[in-house]
Design brief:
31% of the residues lie in helices and 28% in strands. With 214 residues, the chain is α+β, with helices and mostly antiparallel strands. The protein has a domain of 141 residues: Ribosomal Protein S5, domain 2. The longest helix is centred in the last third of the chain and has 17 residues.
Amino acid sequence: MPATISGAPKQGTPTKLKAEFRQHYGTLPQIFRAPGRVNLIGEHTDYNDGFVMPVAIQLYAYVAIAPRLEPRIRIHSQNFDESAEFSLAENSVGSRHHWSDYLRGVTGVLTAQGIAVRGADMMIASEVPVGSGLGSSAAIEVASALALLSVAGRNLAPIEIARACQRADTSTSAACAALWTSLLRASAERVRRSCWTAEISRTNFFQPTTKFES
């Protein structure tokens, strides 16, 4: 099982995250989120060049972020009650079998793409349960990518965020990550994709929201 951030649905997750971030780091954050997902179609059809249709669910991974001058990323996990940090000068890609690998992977991939990732303080709270097939790692990666891009003053299209997170996920685990699962989180909607032609069609169940304002 990948070393994702464990979690369960919680009441008031964003409000609690904002308060704990301020207590931990002494400043107010921006908060970003990405949803878990279930598959209407997609079990074993993706790597057989078939169709997939995942649907976003209302369980989220939340990432709070505030910029810092020092070129380091400091991360705290509410779920694990544990902190980690690393320098932006490090090679962040690769597995250390630690929950921070996903943040390191996203940072490394964005940097490799020419994004000037800034130092930041970050805090994570995930409602998406691990090991249930709801895509907890991809939700964390996409929420983290959105947060890091915001602090860097950059925007990427959902498909580009999905590709970056797919590369990050593949670099930090033994599994080959599916592009469509990251794309769903980057767009927060129902996605129908042909894995043969890469054609994508979308049908919203709700208005996509990636930045959370408490």
